[in-house]
């Protein structure tokens, strides 16, 4: 009997260990095939002669489809096997990345990247369900941090590979090589994912029963209704998530352009220097994962404190952004790093509180979609402000500061109702 139990525990450990590798790989592939356009946007503008607002529109359309698709894939992720949804999403995004460099005009680029946004939305909610249902809370927190670090690792790869490899090899066509290489690497990771899950497909931990099936077998049948959701302070958290998305992706994608405009350096050099943004993001996520495990008792309060720190950095950036490019990069990088910390608290930890209601994937999809509501508004909005003010970046930075201040307010107003909801959901 003891030997049988030990074998079961060993098999379970093997499943979790494998998922600890596979899940970060998926997010590395996701960022590689989704963030590539934003990373090289300044180069595309320079080499293809796009206006700032047109270039921003392509990314904005992708973010709209990504955000809307999060809700759909979140619901599907609670009804069907999440690993299969991820396969569909990765396969489609590979095709979109192969098509992007050969699009004959901006309209086709908008369509392809819009489809890519929806394909990308099929990755995060199912991934959260896989982790939430196979891992204990401590392991989930650690692996979730690693998943986000892997995603940022994909961004770092993009920041380095374009100026150091593709731009040097292909000059003005280097941005096209970025899309092709992203698709190839993603194809390798998709193959690893398929064979990895095939090796554990018989394990009961990865059968992923739906909510109805759980109730029939003695699992949770508690229903989440509008009254519970509204009383939890979720609306305030949702607004905070939108504001976080505006700053995280807005600063990341427009910082190379700001550096290029302000200090008169070429787009490829600005992109290379902006690698500091995701590097600080990695440091931030590793720190916040440790801090959350040891000290943070309320994820919403943690997000509020991070917003305060970001507001401080952005205030300094407002006054000193044109004094020294390295100071500008440092302040931007820390601000983005703090947004990654907020993302961890609100996008990774908050959905866990809904596990008792059997809607982890659904709520994860809704929550993550809110991030990209903010991202879509920011990418086009900041580009529009830049274009209409003739690249007056101090005005754009002032808008960033106002957004951070609103984030502080939303998080601290949500602390008390969220505490009550979280204790009841435990």
Task: Present the secondary structure layout.
Elements lengths: L1 H33 L1 H4 L1 H8 L3 H28 L2 H18 L6 H15 L3 H11 L2 H34 L3 H26 L11 H6 L9 H6 L2 H30 L3 H7 L2 H19 L4 H22 L4 H25 L10 H29 L4 H33 L1
Helix pairs in contact: 1-5, 1-7, 1-8, 1-9, 4-6, 4-7, 4-17, 5-6, 5-7, 5-9, 7-17, 8-9, 8-13, 8-14, 12-13, 12-16, 12-17, 12-18, 14-16, 15-16, 15-18, 16-17
Plain-language structure description:
With 426 residues, this protein is an all-alpha fold. It has a single domain, classed as Up-down Bundle (Growth Hormone, Chain: A), CATH 1.20.1250.20. It is built from 18 helices and no strands. α5 packs antiparallel against α7, α8 packs antiparallel against α14 (276-294) and α16 (325-349) packs antiparallel against α17 (360-388). The two termini are 32 Å apart.
Quickly list its features.
mainly alpha; 18 helices; 426 residues
The CATH first-level class comes to: Mainly Alpha
**CATH topology annotation:** Growth Hormone, Chain: A
Q: Uncertain spans, ≥5 residues at pLDDT below 50?
A: 215-221
Choose one word for the global shape: globular
Mean pLDDT over the residues:
84
Number of helices: 18
Instruction: Indicate the structural class.
Output: mainly alpha
- The number of E-state strands comes to 0
Order of helices and strands: HHHHHHHHHHHHHHHHHH
Approximately what portion of the residues adopt beta-strand conformation?
Answer: under 5%
CATH architecture: Up-down Bundle
Gyration radius (Cα, Å) is: 21 Å
Number of domains: 1
Helix content: over 70%
The major sheet is characterized as: none
Considering the protein shown, what is the CATH homologous superfamily? Answer: MFS general substrate transporter like domains
């Amino acid at each position: 009997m003891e030997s049988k139990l030990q074998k079961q525990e060993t098999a379970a450990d093997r499943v979790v260990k494998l998922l600890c590798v596979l899940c970060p790989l998926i997010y590395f592939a996701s960022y590689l095939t989704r963030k590539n356009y934003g990373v090289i946007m300044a180069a595309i503008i320079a080499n293809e002669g796009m206006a700032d607002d047109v270039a921003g529109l392509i990314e904005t359309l992708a973010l709209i489809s990504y955000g809307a698709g999060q809700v759909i894939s979140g619901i599907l992720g609670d009804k069907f096997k999440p690993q299969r949804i991820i396969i569909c999403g990765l396969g489609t995004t590979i095709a979109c990345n192969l098509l992007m460099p050969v699009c004959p005009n901006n309209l086709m680029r908008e369509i392809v990247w819009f489809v890519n946004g929806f394909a990308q939305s099929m990755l995060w909610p199912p991934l959260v369900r896989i982790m939430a249902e196979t891992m204990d809370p401590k392991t989930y927190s650690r692996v979730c941090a690693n998943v986000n670090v892997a995603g940022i690792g994909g961004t770092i790869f993009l920041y380095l590979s374009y100026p150091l490899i593709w731009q040097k090899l292909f000059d003005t066509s280097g941005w096209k090589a970025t899309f092709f290489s992203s698709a190839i690497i993603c194809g390798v990771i998709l193959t690893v994912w398929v064979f990895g899950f095939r090796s554990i497909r018989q394990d009961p931990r990865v059968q992923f029963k739906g909510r109805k099936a759980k109730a029939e077998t003695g699992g949770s049948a508690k229903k989440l209704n509008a009254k519970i959701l509204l009383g939890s302070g979720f609306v305030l958290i949702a607004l905070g998530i939108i504001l976080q998305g505006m700053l995280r992706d807005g600063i990341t994608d427009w910082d190379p352009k700001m550096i290029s405009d302000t200090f008169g350096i070429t787009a490829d050099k600005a992109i290379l220097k902006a690698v500091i943004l995701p590097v600080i993001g990695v440091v931030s996520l590793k720190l916040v994962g440790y801090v959350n495990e040891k000290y943070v008792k309320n994820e919403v309060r943690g997000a509020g404190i991070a917003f305060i720190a970001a507001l401080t950095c952005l205030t300094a950036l407002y006054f000193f952004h044109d004094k020294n490019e390295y100071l500008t990069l440092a302040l931007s990088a820390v601000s983005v790093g703090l947004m990654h910390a907020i993302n961890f608290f609100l996008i990774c930890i908050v959905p866990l509180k809904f596990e008792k209601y059997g809607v982890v994937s659904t709520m994860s999809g809704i929550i993550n979609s809110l991030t990209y509501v903010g991202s879509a508004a920011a990418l086009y909005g900041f580009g529009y402000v830049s274009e209409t003010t003739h690249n007056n970046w101090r005005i754009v930075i002032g808008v960033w500061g106002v957004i951070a201040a609103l984030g502080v307010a939303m998080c601290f107003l949500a602390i008390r109702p969220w505490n009550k909801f979280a204790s009841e959901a435990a």
